[in-house]
Amino acid sequence: xxxxxxxxxxxxxxxxLADARAGGLSLDQLVESTGCGTGCGLCLPYLLKAxxxxxxxxxxxxxxxFDRLMAEYRGLTPRDTRASTG
Length: 86
Ligand code: FES
Fold this sequence. Notes:
Layout: E1 2-3, E2 5-6, E3 11-12, H1 13-23, H2 27-34, H3 44-53, E4 58-59, H4 63-75
Antiparallel strand pairs: 1-4, 2-3
Helix pairs in contact: 1-3, 3-4
Bound molecules: FE2/S2 (inorganic) cluster.
FE2/S2 (inorganic) cluster (FES) binds at residues 6-9, 36-43.
């Protein structure tokens, strides 16, 4: 199974990644402008990973990886979560 979108808002990570890159948006700014991550919140660690790695399609995270990324997200400054341009 591949995780490819914010289900709650119906937006693909590919689209969100492109928007983040085009606008130089941090994850917080992306969340604010699209509403992604404000429903169930399960897409947040995937979005963080997508912004860092450029992977718009991801395998299901293990519980440990999910928790690590969520904890990291909560402790990050907006600058830390900007999309990689590489
Ligand atoms: S899947 Fe993104 S907020 Fe629920």
